[in-house]
UniProtKB/TrEMBL annotation:
This is FlgD Ig-like domain-containing protein. It comes from the Bacteria. InterPro entries: T9SS_type_B (IPR026341). It holds the Pfam family CHU_C. It comes from Phaeodactylibacter xiamenensis.
Length: 655
């Protein structure tokens, strides 16, 4: 058995989330590579290839929460080398696919293993595939789950002149349903790289070789019984080898991402319709002559554009590279390109993450080091809008002409299923810290706002990066993780005034929102959108959702609906009855007369006054003399609580 594996796994420090880093680093002084990543049931799973302390290699599976904090790590292996290939979500956990190199049996070169890991890191079951006769050498390629919950495993034969691919359908517990060899009448070997279910069929893509050694890219679609529905392959007319690494499902059909060329490889993109027919082909070249190699992963955004991952290597060679994130328009035009890292990072898989993010894994080489470390990245989905810094620089690719030959058909299958038995064991490991690769960013800010509000000028949910200072070659950035919560909306109010100063006014609220609570002028909250027994006054209404977001309406007026009376006649004769003309109201409080005027029949002003209602009285005199009997016109404006009352009335003066 191998010596204990010492894995230095980063315990993410600082604030939850991305803290002060852009690229989390996981590893020791021995080589580690992040091979695959999935987001499943609110957690990240990272599949690492790790070099053991003394010989051999192991498969390591990490589980991280949505903020990047490690929940657990598992390392498993055989006495030989165990190479990981693919990772797929399944039920509550994940499937890990790989191959065992010379796993202790002299009759076996390589066999394929498939582990199902539960969400707590325990192995639920394991399956092994391979033949023990004739020096057979089976290599793992891809694993994915079907819409019905079954599992598809894709492998290929790696030795001999005749090297078919193997496709096996398993039940959800790993028990085989059927297995088949995938062959082609014109090909010596078939090397799949990726597979998935889409548009009701299985898609498999990769590279294949003709008898003359020409390497071509292929994609095949199978029905759920494993029979070929379509086979397409293409070669570039100048006989440069080409291959596919990734299939990205689209709303209609799929996008196949690969590489073309040997001396200076370019990026190859092929769009296929839902039947597998080739409809569009694009080739992208690095203007500085660097090598471009496709990475795994990628996805179609809600706006129809596609995010693609690739890597850029200097033409001089070497393992250090720069990860590229590309944004491709629906018509195949390159919209955006960013170089990720400091020139020594490789992206092996990119996926959509939670809350408007993208995530990726790969490897990074420290300066002066020959042993790579695993890398974990999680950035905003709108990464091209973020300011450039030392880990994110605008890249540039240019379209290149491409001419190709393509052909279809010729694929066939034969039954094949070879299960094997092996023993995988847990391998000890000891977590430790590893320095992150970062620009000198400020700490991550976490904020929540209600819809319609803004924080630091941002109004949309997700991650936002903005520059707040400058520090050498690195922009001093701040990362904001913003949550935007639903808020209530008040559609309207219906207000009933009180009778004079009696507490019988009402306010009825029409509002939108689930489980709303209502409060009036700081009073207790209630579920009923109606307030009764209100005295005249000015109120503030608040409607609140359970998440704390509110809608507020200020200056809601409950008026006093109170009449103002003026006698139709009075007799200023000094008999002590009806000697003065005066306004009356049943309001118990004071009312204010803003203006009160009396005019004779010719329009002449005979009386004018203002003040408290009880003080405004006309005794029927002008300049100390009684006016003549007759009809006079009175005009007034009275201020009641929260309401003004206008008066225009004829009054008869008698003796």
């Amino acid at each position: 058995m191998k010596a204990p594996l010492l894995i230095s796994l980063l315990f993410f420090c600082g604030l939850p989330g991305f803290g002060q880093t852009d690229i989390q680093v996981l590893g020791t002084e021995r080589p580690e590579t992040g091979q695959r990543i999935v987001w499943h049931n609110n957690a990240f799973y990272l599949l690492l290839q790790v070099q053991a302390e003394i010989g051999g290699e192991n498969a390591v599976l990490l589980k991280l929460d949505s903020s990047g904090n490690m929940l657990w790590a598992r390392a498993v292996g055989t006495p030989g080398r165990d190479l990981v290939n693919d990772l797929a979500p399944h039920q509550d956990g994940v499937l890990v696919l790989g191959r065992m190199v010379e796993p202790g049996n002299p009759n076996v070169i390589d066999d394929v293993f498939l582990h199902y890991f539960e969400s707590d890191g325990t192995i639920g079951w394991s399956r092994y595939f391979g033949r023990t006769t004739g020096g057979d050498d089976e290599h793992a390629d891809a694993v994915f789950t079907t819409e019905s919950g079954n599992i598809v495993v894709v492998m290929h034969e790696a030795v001999g002149q005749d090297r078919p691919a193997y496709v096996t359908l398993l039940q959800d517990n790993g028990s085989p349903i059927w297995g088949t060899q995938l062959r082609h009448e014109s090909l010596d070997w078939i090397f799949p790289a990726h597979g998935l279910e889409h548009d009701g069929r299985f898609w498999i893509a990769g590279a294949a070789s003709l008898a003359d050694g020409t390497e071509e890219a292929f994609w095949v679609t199978l029905n759920t019984a494993g029979q070929p529905l379509s086979w397409y392959s293409m070669t570039v007319t100048d006989n440069q080898p080409c291959s596919f690494r990734q299939i990205i499902p689209l709303e209609e059909g799929c996008l196949l991402v690969g590489t073309v060329g040997v001396d200076t490889p370019d990026l190859l993109l092929v769009w296929a319709d839902e039947n597998g027919n080739q409809v569009l082909t694009r080739r992208f070249h690095d203007p500085e002559g660097a090598n471009l190699l496709a990475a795994s992963g990628g996805y179609q955004r809600a706006d129809g554009r596609v995010v693609v991952a690739a890597n850029r290597f200097e033409a001089s060679g070497g393992v250090e590279g720069t990860g590229l994130w590309l944004l491709i328009e629906e018509g195949g035009t390159l919209a955006e390109c960013r170089r990720i890292g400091q020139g020594k990072e490789v992206i092996l898989q990119l996926i959509p993450g939670p809350a408007g993010t993208i995530a990726a894994t790969g490897s990074t080489f420290s300066v002066g080091s020959t042993a790579g470390d695993a890398a974990f990245l999680q950035w905003p989905e709108n990464w091209w809008e973020a300011p450039e810094n030392c880990l994110s620089l605008s890249g540039q690719l240019e379209p290149a002409a491409i001419a190709w030959n393509s052909r279809s058909g010729g694929a066939f299958t034969q039954p094949w299923l070879a299960e094997a038995n092996h023993q995988m064991v847990d391998v000890p490991y000891f977590p430790d810290e590893k320095s992150p690769l970062c620009c000198p960013d400020k700490d991550t800010l976490y904020a929540s706002i209600c819809a319609g509000e803004a924080f630091e000028g941002f109004t949309t949910a997700g991650m936002h990066r903005y520059q707040i200072d400058s520090a050498g070659d690195c922009g001093l950035d701040r990362l904001l993780v913003l949550e935007v919560k639903d808020t209530a909306e008040v559609l309207g109010l219906e207000v009933e005034p009180s009778d004079c100063d009696q507490p019988n006014g009402e306010i009825c609220v029409a509002a939108v929102g689930d489980s709303l609570q209502f409060s009036l002028s700081g009073g207790p909250f209630q579920a009923e959108p109606k307030f009764e027994a209100l005295s005249p006054g000015v109120y503030t209404l608040v409607a609140e959702l359970p998440n704390g977001c509110t809608a507020r309406v200020d200056s809601v007026v409950v008026a006093a609906d109170c009449p103002v009376y003026l006698p139709t006649a009075f007799s200023p004769n000094g008999d002590g009855r009806n000697d003065v003309l005066q306004l009356y109201t049943p309001l118990s409080g004071n009312a204010e007369v803003l203006i009160f005027q009396v005019f004779d029949r010719y329009g002449g002003l005979v009386y004018e006054a203002a003040g408290p209602l009880s003080a405004v009285q006309w005794d029927g005199r002008v300049n100390g003399q009684l006016v003549n009997p007759g009809v006079y016109t009175c005009v007034g404006l009275v201020q009641l609580p929260l309401k003004k009352v206008e008066i225009t009335q004829a009054v008869t003066v008698t003796r």
